[in-house]
Amino acid sequence: MAPPPRRRDSPQELPDELIVEIFLRFPLDEPSCLLRASLVSRRLYRAVSDPFFRQRLHELHRTPPALGFLHNRDDEDIPRFVHSTASAFPLAAPDDHPSWEVVVDCRHGRALFLIHYQVARELLIWEPITGAQHRVPVPAAFENLCPTAAVFCPVEGCSHYNCIGGPFRVVFVFAVDDNDEAKFFTSASVYSSETGTWGEVTRILNRAVCFSSPYRSSVLVWRSLFYFMADGSDILEYDLDSHALARLESPDPYTDTFSLMVAEDGGLGVCKVSDPQQLKLWSWQESDDDDTDGQWVLSRVIYLGNLLPNGALPLSSLSKRVLFFAEVANVIFVTTDDGVFTIELQSERAKKVCDHHFWCLVPVVSFYTPLRLLNLSEEAGGEEGGVKEEKTVERAHQLFGKGTNAVKEGDFDHSFINHDLKTRSVSNEESVMGTSSKDDAGNSKISGSNIMDAASPSEKGDSEEGSKLNSDKN
């Protein structure tokens, strides 16, 4: 009788530290790479879902990418979130998002919706990465007309790489019509999630400062000054420290096509398409004289004809509008006759995001990492021992060389995942059977996480939902 075939020695496992270093170098424009890697095994899942991994991402790359944008277009065929990355990835959408929920802001890992926009009675704060939601009632005393709002993290010194789930505040700005005196008051108040209360209302007597168009933008400057683009040429300033309101005029008081942005020096800026082929940027320069107001200075002109394809250039500037500036990512979203494009201000590189047209969009800027499940049981046993250090280092150098070549060839994520699958095929195979199930058609489904459920189209590749995501982008 022939002896049983000898089992091959299993390849040596890579140290977790090296796996993390490899994952940290995945392209930020390919968030689905981390998602697919997390589905290979529990070990890889723990590596990319650990909060420390998100911190390392921030330390290495510093600037988070613009993942895409939320919009207010009432079209069931267009997802509420449109990704601007090279590959699609899932987000846990709010439970319901009817047309009367208007998104007005997204900052520090949270998106902000106004419920019943014209007279807001409730605010919805939603974390795109985790899917967590908070609903905040607007006090009846805030008899508001055409309001707007902004959300931010209030933690002093926070780098905002991992303030998901932490405290937040909302600046709520609205106009009140005093019928007795036929006057308008522009008012503001701040809600704190830490206390669950609204702060004192600040108001200024002014001409009507309203926000009747939901595509108006807001920016946070120097961590203490919020600016809101109002109707007409008004820009409203709210000081988070003094809770004072002030009003500025845009560079041209006779046009309302400006959008707010952060200038190159970190101060307040605005931008607009003043010519079919010119995107102009202004910065606000404070005056050294207390008796003299500051002034707008034209700081830069970007010629869109050099960046966009010929078919994207409109016949007039009215058919192209700067929509929104993505804070931190330093990207401007522009709508054209050919769809929506992003323009990186540092490199002046343009990229087409989608074919659809939007009059309102709110960029989502964040590092994307899979979530750590609270109910996922840990694997039994510890790390395999007895691996010689010199062999581990040798294999690490070999894998690093392969990874470098794969990055150059644009196939890094597939190369590494294939390596891990090969390792598992001859060693103790890991299983997630405890969290998986099958439907009547026999398709596998991961339960216990909205991220894992939403990831199945990425794994199937040719599934109907995955095809829909790709078609939305193209």
UniProtKB/TrEMBL annotation:
<dbReference type="InterPro" id="IPR056594">
    <property type="entry name" value="AT5G49610-like_b-prop"/>
</dbReference>
<feature type="region of interest" description="Disordered">
    <location>
        <begin position="423"/>
        <end position="474"/>
    </location>
</feature>
<feature type="compositionally biased region" description="Basic and acidic residues">
    <location>
        <begin position="459"/>
        <end position="474"/>
    </location>
</feature>
<dbReference type="InterPro" id="IPR036047">
    <property type="entry name" value="F-box-like_dom_sf"/>
</dbReference>
<feature type="domain" description="F-box">
    <location>
        <begin position="14"/>
        <end position="57"/>
    </location>
</feature>
<dbReference type="Pfam" id="PF23635">
    <property type="entry name" value="Beta-prop_AT5G49610-like"/>
</dbReference>
<dbReference type="InterPro" id="IPR001810">
    <property type="entry name" value="F-box_dom"/>
</dbReference>
<protein>
    <recommendedName>
        <fullName>F-box domain-containing protein</fullName>
    </recommendedName>
</protein>
<dbReference type="Pfam" id="PF12937">
    <property type="entry name" value="F-box-like"/>
</dbReference>
<feature type="compositionally biased region" description="Polar residues">
    <location>
        <begin position="424"/>
        <end position="436"/>
    </location>
</feature>
